[in-house]
Amino acid sequence: MIKAVLFDMDGTLIDTEKYYRICWPKAMAHFGYEMSDEQALSMRSLGQPFAPAHLKEMFADENLDYPAIRAYRKELMEEYLAKNGIEIKRGAIELLNFLKEKKIRRAVATATDMERTERYLKQIGLYPYFDEIISATMVEHGKPAPDIYTFACAQLGLAPEECLAVEDSPNGVMSACQAGCQVAMVPDQTQPDDELKKKLTICANTLDKLKILFS
């Protein structure tokens, strides 16, 4: 029985992954690197220490200044969000209200830092829906390591198998699977391959479709 739902944020609750897809290549270009769309997509939900290692490996450059590039990418993201606003993903509010009525606990488990996570959720009115907000900055290893989901389950006082993780990206799915959670995927920028589908409890095109798991 599912007692809690743990949501990824970017690309799952809010429609921001499309901006990461733009901002990563722009930030890399600013520092003299040419990043393909496929390479940008591979960075989704990738946390510490995996993101800097992955970037250095992709560009075969051990001296690549990840902190500087990431800081510039964050600046670009803030500009895009200030200009375009933050959109809530389709079906999110319907699902959150449904879970609240069912008294199923709700948490966020995101690779984004706590300051921006809280600011974004408050800005769009989703913050009050959650019992716990877990940022990757609170654990040693980010996604795709299981740390963030293991920690989120512990914070809720539940076993991983009692929790459903909701993710949009392969790295997020891997993180939740390794933690032992049930996993729902609502794909955002790319569809799951056959191997990834085997790890899923359900794959749906919008968040509200996940209500079927509780009926």
UniProtKB/TrEMBL annotation:
SUPFAM superfamilies: HAD-like (SSF56784). Pfam families: Hydrolase. InterPro entries: HAD-like_sf (IPR036412), HAD-like_SPP (IPR051806), HAD-SF_hydro_IA (IPR006439), HAD_sf (IPR023214), PGP-like_dom2 (IPR023198). It comes from the Bacteria. One of its GO terms (molecular function) is sugar-phosphatase activity. This is HAD family phosphatase. It comes from Roseburia amylophila.
